[in-house]
């Protein structure tokens, strides 16, 4: 009979997520993971099978939490305020230990594009889903479908830039100013496409 797993899987996965988020996929060795997760090699393989499968679980968990942030903001604020809340969330709510880590999904694309395309594509798919949520917010704010799609793509570039700027440890003030500029431009941009006027 296989030995029962004698540790809390959620706690171990959370520890792995933090390590991957901090160090990336390639720089997080199995030995590092075992120390961080406080488990033995046998328990690791029994619960998670391999590092790659664990990374995908952690990436998905991180992305799902990001979606919850956006959805809660949409429930609480008008659409444009929800977008601002999302873009500024890491500045306003990050724990000290997570400050400057950027976004694990964006980090994955940067680290692994051209190196491990399967993982990079999985991360890119999450970014596309997030862009679709921003598109919905913009439509709710009164932008035509064509404009919403155009501006959501722009906002995703802003979002990715914000996450990289955080990773570079640029001052929060500078990042906020960039967000302010992006949203100010959208507020004055046309809401209707030429065809829908």
SSE layout and pairing:
Blueprint: H1 9-23, H2 30-37, H3 41-48, H4 51-76, H5 79-93, H6 104-112, H7 117-140, H8 145-167, H9 172-188
Q: Please, could you describe this protein's structure?
A:
- It is a single chain.
- The protein is elongated, with a radius of gyration of 19 Å.
- Helix content is 74%, strand content 0%.
- The termini are far apart.
- The chain is mostly helical.
- Helix 5 (79-93) crosses helix 7.
- The longest helix is centred in the first third of the chain and has 26 residues, at 51-76.
- It contains nine helices and no strands.
- The model has no long low-confidence stretch (mean pLDDT 92).
Radius of gyration: 19 Å
Overall 3D shape: elongated
Helix content: over 70%
**Terminal Cα separation, in Å?**
70 Å
Number of DSSP strands? 0
Low-confidence stretches: none
Our estimate of the beta-strand percent is under 5%
Going by helix content, strand content and strand pairing, the class is mainly alpha
**Mind describing the biggest β-sheet?**
none
Short structural description:
With 197 residues, this protein is mainly α. It contains 9 helices and no strands.
Descriptive labels:
9 helices; mainly alpha
């Amino acid at each position: 009979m296989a030995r029962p797993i004698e540790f809390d899987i959620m706690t171990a996965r959370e520890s792995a997520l933090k390590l991957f988020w901090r160090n990336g996929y390639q720089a997080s060795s199995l030995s590092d993971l075992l120390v961080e997760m406080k488990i033995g090699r046998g328990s690791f393989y029994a619960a998670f099978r391999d590092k790659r499968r664990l990374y995908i679980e952690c990436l998905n968990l991180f992305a799902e939490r990001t979606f919850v942030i956006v959805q809660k903001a949409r429930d609480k604020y008008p659409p444009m305020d929800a977008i601002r809340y999302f873009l500024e969330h890491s500045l306003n709510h990050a724990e000290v230990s997570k400050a400057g880590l950027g976004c694990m999904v964006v980090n994955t694309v940067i680290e692994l594009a051209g190196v491990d395309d399967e993982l990079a594509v999985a991360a890119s798919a999450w970014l596309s889903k997030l862009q679709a949520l921003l598109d919905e917010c913009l439509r709710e704010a009164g932008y035509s479908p064509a404009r919403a799609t155009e501006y959501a793509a722009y906002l995703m570039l802003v979002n990715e830039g914000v996450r990289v700027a955080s990773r570079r440890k640029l001052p929060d003030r500078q990042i906020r100013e960039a967000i302010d500029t992006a949203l100010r431009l959208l507020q004055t941009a046309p809401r209707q496409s030429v065809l829908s006027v």
